[in-house]
Structure formats: C-alpha cells, structure tokens
Write a structure and sequence with these properties.
about 325 residues; alpha+beta; five-stranded antiparallel β-sheet
Length: about 325
C-alpha cells in the first residue's frame, strides 16, 4: 500500500525496549504488530499498544540490529543528486564551502528569486518492506512574500522507471514556511537552518526517486550532521524570522521618503520644489517617481514667484533640467 499525494505519513510512534524495559528505538505500528505476531516481541501492556518489548527467544542477547533495521537512515549526499532534465529552467550550483566547524563540505544551491522551477533528483534501490528515514539540512528555501515553492518528494517506482502512475503515488512533503515541521530549526549567518528527518516505508517496492523542488526562493542543501553539531546555534522559527524582517524593514523605511507622481500633471515649479527637498531635505533617501508624468511650463508670474521663494535661480534651472531628463 502506497501513500497518495497529500496523505499524512504514518509516524514511528511505537516505543521499542529490550527485555529489561530499556528503550532501544522506535518503530511503526504495522512493524510492531509484525514483530509481536512472529514472536520476536510482546506488547508491554495488554491495554496499551504503544510500547513493545523485544523477547530473548532466538538469541542469548537482544537482537538490537533488528530494531536498528526498523529505521535505516539515508543521509542526503549532494554527489548523488543531479538536475532533473525534464525541467528546462533549472537553476543549480554545487560547490565546496568551509562550515562553522572548519570542515570543507559540499553545498547544493537550487532555485532563484524568479519563477524558474528547479528540480534535482536521485534514484536509489532500497530493501522491500523496510522502514527508512531520509535526513537532510536546508538553509533558506523561503521568501518574505511567503509564496515560494519548496518541496521534497519520494517517488516509489514499482516497475523500476518513473511512470505517470508512479508519480501520482509519490510522497510529498511541503517544506515552505515549515508546513512540514523540521526536527531542528536554528539561526546561522547564512539564514535559517532546518534539519528534516522524513520517515517512510518501502512496502513492496525497491526502486525510489528522491526529488527536491524550489521556485521563487534560493535553497541550499547540505549533508546532515548529528544533533550535537548544532547545539551551540540559537533556536529560531518562522515567527521570529518574520518579526526580525519586519523590524528591519521598519528601520529602513523610516529613512526613506517615497512620492509617486506616475502619470501626474505637474508644473515645473512643483518639480523644482520636490527636487529641492530631495537635495536639501533631512531624509537620507528620497524617491520621487515621475514615470509618465506630464510636466508643463509655469506662467511667467508663477516662475518669478518660484524664483523668489527658492532664492536661487541656478538651482531651479539645474533641477528643471534633471526633471526633463
């Protein structure tokens, strides 16, 4: 049985303990039921089936390998991925960087701030009827307008090739704005770092395609490290990020004066007054948009009055020339 698009994956929410009750892992409900049925484990409580205890029936010690195989880990490796040729406007870059620990690692940048749809993919052959976890780190992958596309997809390919039917049965994880929650969310000099762990089961399929998608945002993908490697980084989330962006925008806007005269009908004396303010005003940045504006000559009396008010004919002539340009 495969998950359909938009369906929530089954969580690994059954605790696994050894014969003495010590926790040694976690697994999916279906896998736990199979272990109990095969005599490898038993439910820790008759009334609750959220914990199973591995039995010491087949070997002198608990088979910890059995538990570990319930959740085999696949770490993202930039060297395994390549641009999806079905996308004509892929925007990608693969390069070495030195991380905060002084290690040289590969970064895989995908997407841009335009609307170029970018996909990178990797095909893997996995074991049937096995639980896996796919881990990766993404820095960025979001934009201020919150209309980016940032997704991760797992596509089962029962026939060994990507067909329309196989693509319809893909698992889709929406990474935009943390609609699918990461296990870690940290603040770095590059931006917000998120570590994802995606659980899935192969069921009766062994050929899979892993796909990353980006549009209207730049995402940089890294191979994940252990949790301890990120312990010294400050925790963050999208709410904090938005507050920081809004605060910075408020500070920037306080130093700007923006006036829109697009398509307006104005006189030269008005233009002179506005440009004089722009040149000698207290604001650090003044933006006056005269796109498509119609600038007409003043009447002689208005020109003389304007000259008397400004106290400088030379400045008026200079600014009117600028307005004409």
């Amino acid at each position: 049985m495969l998950l359909c698009k938009g369906e929530i994956p089954i969580e690994k929410n059954v605790i696994v303990t050894d014969i003495n009750g010590k926790r040694i892992g976690a697994t999916y409900p279906k896998r736990a039921k199979g272990l109990v049925k095969n005599g490898r484990a038993e439910y820790a409580s008759d009334c609750e089936k959220c914990t199973i205890r591995m039995l010491d029936t087949h070997k002198p010690t608990v088979d910890v390998t059995e538990v570990n195989n319930m959740g085999k880990v696949i770490d993202f490796d930039p060297r395994d991925f390549k641009a999806d040729k079905s996308c004509e406007n892929n925007v990608i870059a693969k390069y070495f960087v030195t991380d905060k620990d002084g290690e040289n690692v590969i970064a895989y940048s995908i997407g841009n701030w335009n609307w170029d749809w970018t996909q990178i993919c990797c095909d893997k052959k996995l074991e049937k009827n096995t639980d896996y976890v796919f881990r990766f780190v993404i820095v960025g992958g979001y934009c201020n307008t919150c209309n980016e596309t940032s997704r991760f997809e797992i596509v089962p390919m029962p026939d060994g090739s990507l067909t329309d039917e196989a693509y319809e049965d893909r698992y889709t994880y929406d990474l935009a704005q943390n609609r699918y929650q990461p296990v870690l969310c940290k603040k770095t000099d590059e931006g917000m770092l998120r570590l994802f762990e995606i659980p899935f089961s192969t069921f009766d399929c062994e050929d899979f395609r892993f796909v990353f998608i980006a549009m209207h945002a730049v995402a940089t993908l890294y191979a994940p490290k252990e949790f301890s490697a990120y312990a010294n980084l400050e925790d963050t989330n999208f709410d904090q990020l938005r507050d920081e962006i809004n605060s910075k925008n408020s500070e920037d806007n306080s130093a700007n004066v923006v006036m829109d005269f697009t398509g307006a009908h104005v006189t030269r004396s008005t233009v002179t007054d506005l440009l004089t303010m722009a040149r000698f005003g207290k604001s650090e940045n003044v933006c006056i948009d005269f796109t498509g504006a119609f600038i007409e000559d003043d009447k002689p009396d208005d020109i003389q009055a304007d000259a008397d008010d400004t106290g400088s004919d030379d400045i008026s002539v200079e600014l009117m020339d600028v307005a004409d340009n």
